[in-house]
Amino acid sequence: MPLPQPTPDELEHSQRLCALIRDEIAARGPIDFARYMALALYAPGLGYYSAGAAKFGAAGDFVTAPELGGLYAGTIARAVAPVLRETRGDFVELGPGSGAFAADVLAALERLDALPARYLIVETSADLRERQRERLAARVPALAPCVQHLDAPPAEPWRGVLFANEVVDALPVQRFVARRDGRTAALGVTCDAAGEFHGIEIEADDALRARVERIEQEVAAALGQPAPVWRRPYRSESLPQLTEWFRAVAGRLRQGLALFVDYGYPRAEYYLPERRDGTLVCHYRHRAHDDPFAHVGLQDITAFVDFTALAEAGAASGFALATFTTQAQYLLANGLTDLLAETAMRDERERVMLAQEVRKLTLPGEMGERFKVMAFSRGVEVRTRRAVDQSHRL
Hints:
Elements: H1 8-28, E1 31-32, H2 33-42, H3 65-68, H4 71-87, E2 90-94, H5 100-111, E3 119-122, H6 126-139, E4 147-150, E5 158-165, E6 174-178, E7 184-191, E8 197-203, H7 206-223, E9 234-238, H8 242-250, E10 253-265, H9 267-270, E11 281-284, E12 287-289, E13 300-302, E14 305-306, H10 307-316, E15 320-326, H11 327-333, H12 336-342, H13 348-362, E16 371-378
Parallel strand pairs: 2-3, 2-5, 3-4, 5-10, 10-14
Antiparallel strand pairs: 1-7, 6-7, 6-9, 7-8, 10-16, 11-12, 11-13, 15-16
Helix pairs in contact: 4-5, 5-6, 8-10
């Protein structure tokens, strides 16, 4: 099905970003896909997450869990309240989107008598900051003054909770292809005489070749088969800067919890032989597709998360893995159904909406199984029921 057409103003915006990317290709030759993805999403004033277009909810390109209603944030509040009471620290949110989660979780934490010392929102987009302020002022006016915006996570040591919902999937990924001749190539981006972008194979460096070889060996071991196990050509993604990124966002957290929610798989499932074209997915006006060169700067570009790599990044940064499980299991274990039972419902319409919210959050065909929760701890004890934790899958 064809994608909806952008407006003339949107097309003009996209062309400005395309010109920037073309200039870089003209100066340097084909660029690595990670560089293209970084420009498409984060080029100042032009990238998808740097510009002002609506992205979240019905008017945007996709719906995240916090946009569904207050049950998600309310359950997360129950999960992190003991840590906030113990540390008397801050709540740091990465990728806050419209501000819906911040408003709902602050209200829930107030009811639980577990308000953080500060609520710190890491957001570089001036437009999104303004929308977040408006949402907070409208929903929790008494609590809005405790919210501060930052360009980056705190530079000084801090305590409390770090929360990131659908953030890791938007980090620029390196793409690779395991070729039929046994060699590994990186996937890059070039443009033709008409200025259209295309994927192209470029030389892989030693680090990428070694990483791809190691991944395939791990997958073969998990399947109980000798390597190689991939049917070539085999394309996928890797995030070599994940440990560096983890240290940048969480390294100053001296006591507390770092909680990540995203769609993805453990490594052995991420790189299964049958997943031959990787996990890259784009979103434009609620249409999911696989063309990263369509509507440049107007669409989201993401890749599923290798949660084994995220666990490794946390361990390398000095954190203990506290929990790995599905979103459904995590929310249910932390009182989603109790919260639903406590929620005052005024009429049948509200009951139907809450039931729909629970279904979207927990059913396997919705977000329940596709989304995973990974929590890391440092200096605090986090108890997880053995039946819930799935760390053995990593």
